[in-house]
């Protein structure tokens, strides 16, 4: 058999020990914040029926679905299953399927991989993890506030400065209504969602290609050019939605969206959120199922695009037979967060090694001597390794250095005779001998 060159598919990655320690640091931080707000964990399968996924992400999203070919069939059949594109649609399916087992409002989080047949590039992968948190069964904007608070708490713990951008899909519907293109809401939203990537001129070209009139495009240009504080934008938008635009058209839907934003920003101020929060009228988020508030989070000190996003959806479960159940959620992009923490060198140095203490081994008698000490320290919660071979000490020291193990213990015949354990701090050079039974003393030294 010919030797194969080892490789993995484009857009996927292996994660070594160092990467996994860092990823788990991110997951554990996010998980601890989710739990502090009363959210509990669920998991759903990597595969979903294709009918569950299709039509939920818009035309462009459907193109990025990984379809799974049927196997074992004598006749080739069209795919019936696909890899999940996100965690929100499977969550909606889960809620409907398990509605008799859960209590509403239902607060859940999920930390699992998703797949998209996208073109791999910096910060964009075909297989990546999402950390989703959603609450379903209530329309209260206290839940939107909690999402903002969780973003603030997570990135505060990670030491990353972020800006939180908020808009409302009703406001975007208002754009279309006063632009005299109420049937072009999706086209306008998809175009606006690309503003950061392609610029205003290209966005206008895309809208024109969707048969939106020059007058309508001029109205949207006027909106996207607004600046100032939240209150200033709110006042300007109210005037436009009340007939103050060039078209003279009124949008009750847009005004309702502004009312929701005003309530939400009032709650955010009252809660004392630390991160800067702004109303971003260019924020569209292209997923078709959003109906209310939408969120996007960007790192302030590292250029990578959004690292977190989500929004309110009023009838996602209706697709699966449970109408009128409103929910809201947000997704933390773990892979992009990893890249930001790496770029800003914010990972704690202590993650470099899971092992706190290495017992060097001089021979068979010395091995038997340290084994019960290693056991006692592990039972006390310390991560301990015993070197497996009685080789030269230089090699054992090099092993500790490569793995960034901060302490080493060398116990020879003199330590056995005195019933002591010698431990050395490899960074400071400090060395101390302990009674073999003095586990608390060793733990205190090893902190």
Descriptive report:
There is one protein chain. The chain is α+β, with helices and mostly antiparallel strands and 447 residues long. Among the domains are: 188 residues, BirA Bifunctional Protein, domain 2 (2-Layer Sandwich); 94 residues, Anticodon-binding domain (Rossmann fold), CATH 3.40.50.800. The chain contains 16 helices and 16 strands. The protein has an 8-stranded mixed beta sheet. A 5-stranded mixed beta sheet has the order 13-12-14-15-16, sandwiched between helices. The protein has a 3-stranded antiparallel beta sheet with strand order 2-4-3. Helix 5 crosses helix 11.
What oligomeric state best describes the polypeptide chains here? single chain
Classification by helices and strands: alpha+beta
> Beta-strand percentage?
15-25%
The CATH homologous superfamily of the domain at 17-161 and 301-343 is named Bira Bifunctional Protein, Domain 2
Counting DSSP E segments of at least 2 residues, the number of strands comes to 16
Can you tell me the CATH class of the domain at 17-161 and 301-343? Alpha Beta
Radius of gyration: 28 Å
What level of helicity do the residues show? 40-55%
Q: Can you tell me the overall shape? A: elongated
Q: How many helices does DSSP assign?
A: 16
The CATH topology assignment of the domain at 17-161 and 301-343 is BirA Bifunctional Protein, domain 2
Question: What is the typical, i.e. mean, pLDDT?
Answer: 92
State the CATH architecture of the domain at 17-161 and 301-343: 2-Layer Sandwich
Given as residue ranges, the uncertain stretches (5+ residues, pLDDT < 50) are none
Q: How widely separated are the two ends?
A: 52 Å
Q: What kind of sheet is the major sheet?
A: 8 strands, mixed
Strand adjacency order, main sheet:
1-5-6-11-10-9-7-8
């Amino acid at each position: 058999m010919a030797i194969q060159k080892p490789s993995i598919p484009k857009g996927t990655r292996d994660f070594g020990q160092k990467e996994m320690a860092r990823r788990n640091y991110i997951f554990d931080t996010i998980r601890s914040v989710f739990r502090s707000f009363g959210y509990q964990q669920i998991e759903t399968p990597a595969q979903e029926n294709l009918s569950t996924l299709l039509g939920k992400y818009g035309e462009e999203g459907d193109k990025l679905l990984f379809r799974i070919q049927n196997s074992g069939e004598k006749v080739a059949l069209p795919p019936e299953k696909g890899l999940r594109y996100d965690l929100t649609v499977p969550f909606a399916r889960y809620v409907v399927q398990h509605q008799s087992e859960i209590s509403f409002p239902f607060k859940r989080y999920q930390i699992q991989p998703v797949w998209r047949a996208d073109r791999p590039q910096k910060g964009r992968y075909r297989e990546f993890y999402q950390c989703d948190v959603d609450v379903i069964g209530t329309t209260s904007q206290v839940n939107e506030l909690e999402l903002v608070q969780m973003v603030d708490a997570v990135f505060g713990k990670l030491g990353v400065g972020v800006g939180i951008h908020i808009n409302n899909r009703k406001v975007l519907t208002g754009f279309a209504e006063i632009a005299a293109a109420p049937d072009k809401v999706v086209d306008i939203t998809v175009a606006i969602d690309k503003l950061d990537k392609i610029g205003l001129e290209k966005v206008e070209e895309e809208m024109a290609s969707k048969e939106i009139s020059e007058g309508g495009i001029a109205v949207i240009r006027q909106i996207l050019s607004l600046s100032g504080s939240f209150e200033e934008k709110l006042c300007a938008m109210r005037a436009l939605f009340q007939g103050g635009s060039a078209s003279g058209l009124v949008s009750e839907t847009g005004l309702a969206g502004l009312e929701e934003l005003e309530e939400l920003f009032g709650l955010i101020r009252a809660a004392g959120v630390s991160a800067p929060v702004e109303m971003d009228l260019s924020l569209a988020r292209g997923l078709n199922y959003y109906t209310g508030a939408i969120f996007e989070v960007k790192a302030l000190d590292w250029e990578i695009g959004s690292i977190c996003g989500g929004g309110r959806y009023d009838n996602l479960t209706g697709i699966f037979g449970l109408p009128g159940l409103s929910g809201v959620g947000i997704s933390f992009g773990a892979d992009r967060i990893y890249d930001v923490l790496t770029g800003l060198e914010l990972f704690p140095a202590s993650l470099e090694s899971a092992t706190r203490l290495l017992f060097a081994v001089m021979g068979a008698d010395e091995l038997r001597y340290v084994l019960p000490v290693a056991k006692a320290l592990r039972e006390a919660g310390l991560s301990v390794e015993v070197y497996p071979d009685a080789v030269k000490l230089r090699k054992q020291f090099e092993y500790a250095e490569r793995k960034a193990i901060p302490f080493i213990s060398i116990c020879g015949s003199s330590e056995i005779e005195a019933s002591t354990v010698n431990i050395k701090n490899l960074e400071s050079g400090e060395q101390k001998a302990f009674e073999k039974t003095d586990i608390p003393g060793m733990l205190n030294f090893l902190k």
